[in-house]
């Protein structure tokens, strides 16, 4: 079979007719051109995924296509913005067409679900490395920042935490899971669900927000630092799967605590809101996107206290993920 070449590869797997009327020029030129809606601001985010660092060598390419966009959508969701346009850069070891077909299928399925247009990017040969930049829109002045939390605010998280890290621990043979639990955890690792609709619904309601990508304790600490506040979190209120709950109560408690408080790749939203708006927040929860109130903001700057099931502070919190720690 003849090799497609770089530009043939792009045309076959990543160039589609432009459907967004705000895109004046998409894939195929030196740069893309978009028209930002009146009275809106651009919200921009970028994430990189490196083989053997962020995903396994034998990872399903369709799940990679999904995930490289999902992690960026999660950042956009954390700002309360509407995702619009994406740029994809990739280093690939070869032009494997079966891999490319599956990868682009996973990417475009999620892009179509959220109205995202791929408008450009770049490719090169090298160790597999995927980098996606996303742009979104938000009405001027309505972006939800990390810096708005105030003492007395409730702390909330969406979904459940820890299963992605639990799946990785099972794959690394640091723990064992039965088949149903492994399937659920592996889906959380490989096919995360960005909470885009929830992020937009929280405009004007959440006082501060971020996504949980590097572990609850570490990410919440970033929010506390930006807002010059502290927090108390109740471990018993942090949502977790039945499999993780069982390990938390058994001989693998240390591993379960790491998953729940420091596990990466959850891509859930953690946000604060005034306690007077508790009922308004609860109305946003759905069976697919449950919301849990896990604690409250305190005036003690930078101090994060997590109480165990007996109400005692956990003396040493597991650390969130850091590429250079």
Can you give a write-up of this model?
- The protein is built from ten helices and twelve strands.
- The chain is of the alpha+beta class and 325 residues long.
- Strands 8-10-7-11-9-12 form a six-stranded mixed β-sheet, with helices on both faces. Strands 3-6-4-5 form a four-stranded mixed β-sheet. A two-stranded antiparallel sheet has the order 1-2.
- It is globular.
- The protein starts with a helix and ends in an 18-residue tail after the last strand.
Work out the helix count.
10
Query: What's the end-to-end separation, in Å?
Result: 46 Å
In the CATH hierarchy, the architecture of the largest domain is Alpha-Beta Complex
Number of domains: 2
Rg over CA atoms, rounded to whole Å, is 20 Å
Mean pLDDT, rounded to whole units?
Answer: 92
Q: Determine the strand fraction and express it as a percent band.
A: 15-25%
- Tell the overall outline: globular
- At the first level of CATH, the class of the largest domain is Alpha Beta
Largest sheet, strands/sense/barrel: 6 strands, mixed
Query: Helicity level, as a percent range?
Result: 25-40%
Low-pLDDT stretches: none
CATH topology of the largest domain: Phosphoribosyl-aminoimidazole Synthetase, Chain A, domain 2
CATH superfamily caption of the largest domain: PurM-like C-terminal domain
């Amino acid at each position: 079979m003849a090799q497609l070449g770089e530009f043939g590869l792009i045309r076959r797997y990543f160039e589609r007719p432009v459907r967004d009327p705000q895109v004046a020029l998409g894939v195929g030129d030196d740069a893309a051109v978009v028209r930002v809606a009146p009275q809106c601001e651009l919200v921009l985010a970028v994430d990189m995924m490196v083989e053997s660092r962020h995903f396994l060598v034998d990872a399903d390419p369709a799940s990679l296509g999904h995930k490289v966009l999902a992690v960026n959508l999660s950042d956009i969701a954390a700002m309360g913005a509407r995702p619009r346009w994406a740029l994809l850069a990739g280093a690939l070891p070869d032009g494997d067409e079966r891999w490319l077909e599956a990868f682009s299928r996973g990417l475009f399925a999620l892009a179509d679900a959220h109205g995202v247009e791929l408008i450009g990017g770049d490719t090169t040969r090298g160790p597999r490395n995927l980098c996606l930049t996303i742009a979104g829109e938000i009405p001027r002045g309505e972006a939800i920042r990390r810096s708005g939390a105030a003492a007395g605010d409730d702390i909330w998280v969406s979904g459940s935490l820890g299963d992605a890290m639990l799946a990785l621990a099972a794959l690394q043979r640091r723990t064992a899971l039965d088949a149903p639990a492994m399937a659920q955890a592996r889906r959380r690792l490989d096919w995360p669900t960005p909470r885009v609709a929830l992020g937009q619904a929280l405009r004007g309601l959440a006082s501060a927000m971020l996504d949980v990508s590097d572990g609850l304790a570490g990410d919440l600490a970033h929010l506390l630092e930006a807002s010059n506040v502290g927090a108390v979190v109740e471990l018993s209120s942090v949502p977790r799967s039945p499999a993780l709950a069982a390990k938390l109560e058994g001989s693998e408690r240390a591993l379960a605590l790491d998953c729940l408080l420091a596990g990466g790749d959850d891509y859930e939203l953690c946000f604060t809101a005034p306690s007077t708006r508790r009922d308004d927040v609860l109305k946003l929860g759905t069976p697919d996107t449950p919301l849990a109130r896990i604690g409250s903001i305190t005036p003690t700057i930078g101090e994060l206290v997590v109480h165990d099931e007996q109400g005692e502070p956990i003396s040493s919190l597991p650390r969130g993920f850091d590429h250079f720690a």
